[in-house]
# Entry
Amino acid sequence: MRVLKAIWNLLVGIKDALVLLFMILFFAGLYALLSARPAPTVAEGVLHLNLRAGVVEQPAEQDAFALAGGGSVPTQHALRDVRAALLKARDDERVKAVALDLDGFSAGQTVIADLGEALDAVKRSGKPVLAYATGYSDDGYQLAAHAGEIWLNPMGVVQLSGPGGNNLYFAGLLEKLGVTANVYRVGTYKSAVEPFTRSDMSPEARQNAQGLASSLFETWRDDVVKARPQANINAALTNPAALVRSARGDFAAAAQAARLVDKVGERQAFQARLAELGGADDRSPAGFKRIRLDRYIAAEVRPAMKEGGPIGVVTVAGNIVDGRAPLGTAGGDSIAESIEKGLRDERIKALVVRIDSPGGSALASERIRQALLAARKKNIPVVASMGNVAASGGYWVATAANHIVAEPSTITGSIGVFGILPSFQGSLQKLGIAADGVKTTPLSGEPDLLNGPSPQASELIQLGVESIYGKFLGIVAEARRKTPQQVDAIGQGRVWSGGQARQVGLVDQFGGMEEAIAKAAELAKLDQDNRGVTYLERKKSWRSELAGLLRDDEDSAEEDDPFASLRARPDMLALAALREVELLVSGPTIQARCLACGPVESAPVVAAPPSGWFARLLTLLS
# Structure
């Protein structure tokens, strides 16, 4: 029997090995076949930008196996790719017009500002720019305002609301679950821990949030009014119901009467208009000669990016975490190693670090900062370019720069540190479970998450938070030529808009990547004809590369219910809130992270339930 069992196990092992080998060969062959496709070519027509999935600083990696299993993750576009495509289209005779499909579009204000400038450049070249949507929210309308012709579905709506809204507070839930949030913090305005200790917003957090929202709203309004002065923005913001009543309940007609849009029509009418501009194509479902954005980027943008240049560009996007991480998450080691590898290239004469991150691990932030400081020790100037968010750990990274460039709508600051540890003495009591043991020192078994951290352990963690905050003040003071006391006065976790940050001395200059690259070239004393860039990024995994080759969703022309598309799905809000709880309490004990800065955009939203201790506890106690 033992011999037969051994033979059977051997046969099963051989079978498993053959299946694994077959799978490896299959996907390797598929990858080789797809990647060997001829380079895309571009014919004349209308450059069509389907921006349903949004535009982010650095799209998160996708997994081919998840796609094969039926997973659904929207394909995001990188800001630099879309912007470069628009600027290329400006002078490309094959591109007769640019069309924006803005159903479901969302992006940060700095991303929209950069894209708006590129669209303005296309319009100045004399080429038509058109936009279409069934529903415009703040983000979509801000970008559409830069179009020369805005279309709206007859059943559509323009709903402008401005920054604001509610946060979730979990103190009551944690009390019911018996979870104690042991909080350690420095800073009057470090509101990241408030959702776990309060049931409402503190006066200090409200003051900071209101000031930030007002500043961002002013920037949004200025941009829209400048781009589309004929629109009656005041009426749309202050009394939209009166506009709709005056149009006898017709939302689309009300938007047109207020000159928020130029045309009201079905998508077919919009496509017919594009056929007039770029030529008809009976073989295309859309009916017009269309240049797909992804193909245009592959044919015209990516080859130019591969040429490289003396200015290295490194991106810090997403939550900053320890160790290595895929694109879309700022792994401290991954980014630092990319910088160190780039510095070994003698062609690199300057660095631009593009930051779009609310922070995270203080240790990982310092790892990236040290890699940038190593560049400065080699007399390589470093310029920080801030995207939508460069706060807390994101600002920590920026302190390594010789010069900091930000947009007025950038969210930055949040110079503060907090720590949080969950303990479960109440939960165990509800379940009839007790925890007991022995100690050899006051710190044996600490921090005790079953009975709660001891006073000695809590004191040490608080001292650690204060120590890191002191270091944070010190590096900001040195970088910004201030005293630690002056930094503390504008720190303590307070969040600033880019406009406010420049006033208090946290930012040197307004601008985007173009201005940052120009400043880096100036500091490195590079000639005008020698200012090309080399992107210092770790390579995507082969599974992510394969996912990109497999996807082909640019042809999607789905139309959303105009009202449903203008609100966040409640299930997504709930899942995002639970993930936020788990991220904070399962991440590093001490964090330099800005919760008030909003969600991280480079992480794709996937409708998957939360996992980990928090979800399991909910299940146990439900």
Q: What stands out?
A: The chain is about 45% helix and 15% strand. Residues 601-611, 618-622 have pLDDT under 50 and may be disordered.
